[in-house]
Amino acid sequence: MFENRISNPILRGAVDWLVSIGIAVVLFFVVRGFIFRTAHVDGNSMNPTLAHGDMVILNRFAYVIGNPQVGDIVAFPYSENPSEYYIKRIVAQAGDIVDLRDGMFLVNGEPLEDDFSYELVISIGDVFFPIEVEDGRFFVLGDNRNGSRDSRFSGVGTICGDKMIGRASVRIWPPNRIGAVDG
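RESULT FIELD:
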């Protein structure tokens, strides 16, 4: 490109470095904008899976080539403040019926079983159960069932699949908890 016209080897080297850095910066923003994004966990609604202060990588490409699945941990904009993201776990999808009875969530009449939430649910929210999840939407819960604002609250509700920013795939902070995110 320009380096063929530059006779000074030091200046040619500097131009090569600047071009390389420019390409790297452009690639970084393309990858960050279209494939991966980072998100900070604010609060304890996803304990014990994710803790306050954790930073995760959101795989934005996962839902370009596939669909959200029950068990995925996803990020989406909070409807009452779209600049704020919520991170929750999908527990039901379109056509599923979610109920809350005797302190337990039921999906299609079966108890919601997981390895992280053993306490009875006392925080019932402000929506009426049972709920049938609408087409293209998902019912999400925080892993900390009694400390989460999620689909059982009308301000969150069921989440439209095309509003999901991405699937949480890897925790990158804090250093002692780096690794894959269950979900």
